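Morning, I've got a small favour to ask if you have a moment. I owe you a coffee for this, so here goes:

…
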Amino acid sequence: MAFISTDAGDAITTITLNRPEKLNAFAGTMREDLLAALRNAEADRACRVVVLTGAGRAFSAGGDVERMAALQRQADVDGLRRLLDAGAAIVTEIVSMTKPVIAAINGVAAGAGCNLALACDYRIASAEAKIGETFVRIGLHPDWGGTWLLPRLVGSGRALELLVTGRLIDASEALAIGMIDRVVAPADLASECTNLAREIATAPPVAVRGIKRALRSSMANDLTAQLALEAENQTRAFLSSDASEGMTAFFAKRLPEFRGD
């Protein structure tokens, strides 16, 4: 896992794409190693929130174009499918995880790197970041869930324009259209992400897991199904030690200490 580094502590797991000399473009076993890091964070009971970022001046430039060009010259569809399956597994893992994932977009997020960020639950970007669905620039179709993720954030019309032009947009435009959730000064990115992660880490894990599940499900559910899911999640939270602690702390006028069970 030379190109993926993980740091865990205080209920926060930070996963860093660590190939800065190539703008953290995915090569070798990076896809599989990132998937393993995400699964480890999900399985770690001490972890309550994940921060995903890139080393150096990029979040991720996407796939390694040299590798893609070699596969294309050889018409290696099997090799392509392995890359596609690995990317799909990463996006599916992030979306299905019970723990919120924050994208700290420290620089360019292009192609697969863009969709990796879009798969996360919340996106904070440096004011110097740029983000874009750049696949068509080299004659390719979006993958890593871009055609599913992007229109849910910006609407189908804007999604079409961004997907077919492949243009990189700056952080201010991405914020205005809903691709990202917050823009901060480059020097403040790490602290802003840490502060949000700490807030999530101190929230009741049972309720947080239910909230993430409910928000993701709301994309497909009708109101009746969503109300039923809310009732299911609320019952689970109501019976948890988190709710008991929260109410006890409320009456004692102290901060709660949630355990997540």
